[in-house]
């Protein structure tokens, strides 16, 4: 592959280059010429089979003209290129093709000539060209450009046409004087022809938005100052208070709004393609060239904005230059990416929120079930304790009855025993309080309520259920010791639920010692403060826990009892853990089981009371 490429390059380098002489009508810097040159070189560089060598010459019109100058130029070119005769000549613009046609006999007689950027109307005015002078003519579309201006500014009443003082400028003026009035309708047409540049700029500066300006620029003004048409048009566009239109694409960017324009670069490319075909051996007559270079509607977007031209009036096929991308066009990808990320993020957040809501409601449902279960379990415990509760209430009722009997006897006996009667009444009141206290506590224990979080002293809470437990222990002939902590031991949470834990543990302990001889039926409940924890220990000397059962003890529905439900310990653990504590079972060193509940101790001032 590389070898082949190398051989081709060597062959190309070895091939004799072809000479192309490019003769421009004007000077080197005329922008149209620069664009033609660019197109010409681009076309030949990419198509010619042999290297091409370009030589450029300039007639420098309109600065230099006349018969003597033409004579000088002819001999100069002939002598200069005698040793390097051109293989093809490209004539750029009207004057160059006319010059070459006229002096052909003295200049490179049989060398083919390709013209570019030569206007059709100019060619028509020349004697017919020989068959080996070929090219695609163009036409500056003055009428089309003016029609565009009038379409984009429908309200204007004045058309100002500016032309210059050189022969070429005068040719344009003549043409415009013919072409403009029929397009103007009832608008006023003013010609600013052959004026001084200062005058032109002054007059344009006084226009208003009732006018449009049309100019092909000029090469020379009245004072003989030389310009290239692009610079002249640019000066006008800057000074003018009305929009300026022109027929050349080189005007774009100077401040001119636009026009119907053939492309100078395209003209250069077209000429280059023709030269290439001639080099490859095509006969000039066989070329079948287009009749004329196409024109296109071209506008400068910045001027469209400046003159507040209605966007809809610009045809969709117009070539729009210098369009500043809108924010959307410039940052579309970034914006789409950002929007996508935003959307994804929003979706993620929404799904997380949804998930959180679902979890919350699931948690709430579980919490509600736990509360209901805990309540049901309390009812069950109360059922178990019915006999003791009845006993607890019966005792004060019995005492009240006894007191009432005693009072009755005193009253029947007569006499003044007021003191004794008062003592009896006091006793009745105390016993009544005892009975109602039992009922109050029972109601508190059995009431259905939402779990709350309030600080309370564990000693008090244990003491309250202690009464009931003592009664039950007495009924079952069990010795129950309840040892409170030496100081108030504050925890935070639901008092009733913590009491329920103690009840469950104590009743289990009572079950465990039930079959033992009476002297060994002992249970001990101890409340202590251990560093940051409040600890309740329930210890019995019963049958203990089988090692296999230990891991399953707190599972729901695990029971070794004949009529057991297996819910007491599982509910106890749920309650303790909801309070941020722990519960564990172990073997008591003296035989039997030991259950220990640890709850975080709190500072009662620091805990706000809230529903959990
Ligand atoms: P239930 O009392 O209805 O069986 P629990 O969840 O309260 O349900 O207890 C589960 C099991 O734990 C009991 O069946 C028993 O085997 C065991 N257990 C609980 N407390 C003790 C204890 N103090 N001594 C020995 N075993 C116990």
Topology, please?
Blueprint: H1 2-14, E1 18-24, H2 31-47, E2 52-58, H3 67-80, E3 88-92, H4 94-102, E4 113-116, H5 120-125, E5 133-135, H6 142-152, E6 158-163, H7 167-184, E7 188-193, H8 197-205, E8 211-214, H9 229-239, E9 244-245, E10 258-261, H10 264-279, E11 296-300, H11 301-306, E12 319-321, H12 327-384, H13 386-413, H14 418-446, E13 452-457, H15 458-475, E14 479-483, E15 490-493, H16 495-513, E16 522-530, E17 533-540, H17 568-578, E18 582-587, E19 593-600, E20 610-611
The number of distinct helices, counting runs of at least 4 residues, comes to 17
**Average pLDDT, all residues:** 90
Major sheet strand order? 2-1-3-4-5
The structure class reads alpha/beta
Contiguous low-pLDDT stretches (5 residues minimum) are: none
Fill in the keyword field for this structure.
612 residues, alpha/beta, five-stranded parallel beta sheet, five-stranded mixed beta sheet, 17 helices, 48% helix, binds adenosine-5'-diphosphate
Description:
It is built from 17 helices and 20 strands. With 612 residues, it is an alpha/beta fold. It has a five-stranded parallel β-sheet, sandwiched between helices. The protein has a five-stranded mixed β-sheet with strand order 14-16-17-19-18. The mean pLDDT is 90. Adenosine-5'-diphosphate (ADP) binds next to helix 16 and helix 17.
Structure summarized in a few sentences:
The protein has 612 residues and is of the alpha/beta class.
């Amino acid at each position: 592959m590389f070898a082949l490429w190398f051989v081709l390059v060597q062959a190309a380098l070895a091939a004799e280059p072809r000479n192309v002489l490019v003769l421009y009508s004007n000077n080197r810097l005329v922008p149209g010429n620069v664009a033609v040159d660019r197109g010409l070189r681009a076309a030949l560089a990419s198509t010619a089979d042999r290297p091409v060598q370009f030589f450029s010459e300039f007639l420098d019109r309109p600065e230099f003209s006349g018969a003597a100058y033409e004579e000088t130029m002819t001999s100069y070119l002939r002598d200069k290129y005698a040793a390097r005769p051109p293989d093809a000549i490209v004539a750029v613009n009207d004057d160059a093709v006319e010059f070459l046609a006229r002096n052909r006999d003295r200049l490179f007689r049989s060398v083919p000539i390709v013209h570019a950027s030569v206007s059709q109307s100019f060619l028509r005015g020349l004697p017919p060209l020989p068959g080996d002078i070929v090219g695609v003519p163009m036409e500056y579309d003055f009428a089309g450009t003016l029609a565009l201006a009038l379409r984009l500014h429908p309200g204007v009443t004045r058309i100002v046409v500016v032309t210059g003082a050189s022969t070429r400028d005068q040719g344009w003026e003549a043409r415009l004087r013919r072409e403009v009035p029929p397009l103007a309708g009832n608008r006023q047409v003013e010609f600013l022809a052959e004026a001084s540049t200062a005058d032109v700029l002054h007059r344009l500066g006084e226009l208003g938005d009732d006018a449009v300006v049309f100019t092909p620029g000029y090469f020379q003004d009245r004072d003989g100052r030389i310009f290239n048409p692009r610079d002249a048009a640019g000066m006008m566009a800057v000074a003018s208070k009305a929009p300026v239109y022109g027929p050349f694409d080189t005007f774009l960017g100077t401040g001119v709004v636009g026009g119907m324009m053939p492309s100078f670069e395209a003209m250069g490319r077209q000429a280059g393609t023709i030269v290439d075909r001639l080099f490859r051996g095509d006969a000039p007559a066989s070329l079948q060239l287009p009749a004329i270079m196409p024109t296109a509607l071209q506008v400068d977007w910045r001027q469209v904005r400046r003159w507040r031209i209605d966007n809809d009036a610009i045809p969709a096929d117009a070539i729009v230059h210098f369009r500043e991308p809108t924010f959307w066009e410039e940052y579309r990808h970034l914006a789409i990416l950002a929007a996508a990320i935003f959307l994804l993020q929003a979706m993620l957040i929404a799904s997380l929120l949804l998930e959180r809501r679902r979890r919350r409601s699931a948690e709430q449902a579980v919490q509600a079930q736990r509360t209901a279960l805990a309540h049901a379990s309390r009812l069950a415990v109360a059922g178990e304790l019915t006999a003791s509760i009845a006993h607890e209430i019966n005792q004060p009722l019995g005492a009240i009855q006894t007191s009432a009997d005693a009072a009755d006897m005193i009253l029947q006996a007569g006499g003044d025993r007021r003191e004794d009667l008062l003592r009896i009444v006091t006793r009745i009141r105390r016993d009544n309080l005892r009975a109602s206290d039992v009922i109050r506590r029972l109601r508190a224990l059995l009431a259905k309520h939402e779990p709350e979080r309030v600080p309370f002293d564990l000693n008090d809470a244990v003491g309250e259920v202690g009464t009931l437990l003592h009664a039950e222990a007495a009924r079952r002939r069990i010795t129950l010791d309840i040892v409170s902590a030496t100081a108030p031991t504050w925890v935070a949470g639901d008092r009733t639920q913590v009491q329920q834990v103690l009840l469950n543990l104590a009743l289990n302990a009572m079950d465990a010692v039930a079959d033992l001889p009476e002297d060994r039926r002992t249970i001990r409940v101890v409340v202590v403060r251990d560093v940051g924890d409040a600890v309740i220990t329930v210890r019995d000397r019963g049958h203990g826990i089988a090692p296999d059962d230990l891991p399953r003890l707190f599972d729901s529905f695990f029971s070794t009892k004949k009529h057991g439900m297996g819910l007491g310990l599982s509910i106890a653990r749920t309650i303790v853990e909801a309070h941020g504590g722990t519960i564990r079972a172990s073997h008591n060193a003296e035989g039997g089981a030991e259950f220990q509940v640890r709850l975080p101790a709190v500072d009662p001032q620091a805990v706000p009371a809230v529903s959990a």
